[in-house]
Write a structure and sequence with these properties.
Length: about 220
C-alpha cells in the first residue's frame, strides 16, 4: 500500500496543447506562355489604309452675275495731248515775305550801332563789336545771389537784330539760371540800331555774345 501511495504521489500529468505556427501564404504566380516566333516567319502585313471617297457635286448657276469692268486709271498719250496746256501768264506768283537771316560774319552791310554812323563802312564791324562790349561793361551787375552761392561762369547769349533795328529772340545758355537772367537783362536794353542790309535790302541779323561772370 505504501508503494502504491508513493507512486500515486510521484505520477505527473501534462496538459496537451495544440501548437499553431504562422503560415505565410503567397498568391500563385501564373506564368504566361509567350509563343516563340520563328526567325524565318515574316511579320503580318499592316492593315489597309482607309480610302476616303470625295464626291464633287456640281451646282448649276441660277443667278446671272454681271462681270465688273475695271477701267484703267493710266493716262494715255492721246489724253495728254488733249489736255489744256497752261501758259506761264496763267500762273499767278504771290509775293512771299521770306524770313531771311544773314549771319553777322558774312553780311554785306553790318548793323550800325548808335555812335558808329560816322565811321567808314569798312570799320563798322569793329565799331559794332566795340560798342557792344562797352554796353555790357556799363550795364553789368553781378547778381548778389550768385555771389552768395559762389556761382560763376560764361553765359552765351544769342539774339536777332530785326529789320527795324530792334532786338528780338534773346536766348541764353549758361551754368545757372541766375546768371542767364542777368545776361538776358543786359541784352534786352540794347539801343535800337540801323538794321543790316544784304544787296541793299534790310534783313534780320543773328548775333552771338558771350558774357563772363567771374568773381574777384
Amino acid at each position: 500500500m505504501l508503494f502504491i501511495s508513493w507512486q500515486a504521489l510521484e505520477y505527473k500529468t501534462y496538459e496537451k496543447r495544440d501548437v499553431v505556427l504562422d503560415v505565410l501564404s503567397m498568391e500563385e504566380v501564373v506564368e504566361e506562355e509567350i509563343p516563340l516566333l520563328s526567325l524565318n516567319t515574316p511579320p503580318p502585313p499592316p492593315p489597309p489604309a482607309a480610302v476616303v471617297t470625295e464626291q464633287i457635286k456640281v451646282v448649276e448657276d441660277l443667278i446671272e452675275v454681271e462681270e465688273t469692268v475695271i477701267e484703267s486709271t493710266e493716262i494715255s498719250q492721246e489724253d495728254v495731248v488733249e489736255e489744256r496746256i497752261v501758259s506761264v501768264s496763267d500762273v499767278e506768283v504771290a509775293e512771299v515775305d521770306e524770313y531771311v537771316e544773314v549771319p553777322f560774319a558774312i553780311i554785306e552791310d553790318v548793323p550800325v550801332f548808335p555812335g558808329c554812323e560816322g565811321v567808314k563802312k569798312s570799320q563798322r564791324r569793329a565799331c559794332f563789336q566795340k560798342m557792344i562790349m562797352q554796353h555790357v561793361s556799363k550795364n553789368f551787375e553781378y547778381p548778389q545771389l550768385a555771389l552768395d552761392m559762389g556761382i560763376s561762369g560764361r553765359v552765351f547769349v544769342i539774339f536777332t537784330i530785326e529789320k527795324d533795328g530792334s532786338i528780338k529772340k534773346i536766348k541764353t545758355r549758361g551754368p545757372d539760371k541766375v546768371l542767364e537772367k542777368e545776361a538776358h537783362r543786359i541784352v534786352s536794353i540794347l539801343p535800337r540800331m540801323t538794321p543790316g542790309k544784304q544787296r541793299g535790302e534790310p534783313v534780320r541779323v543773328p548775333f552771338s555774345l558771350p558774357i563772363n561772370f567771374k568773381m574777384k
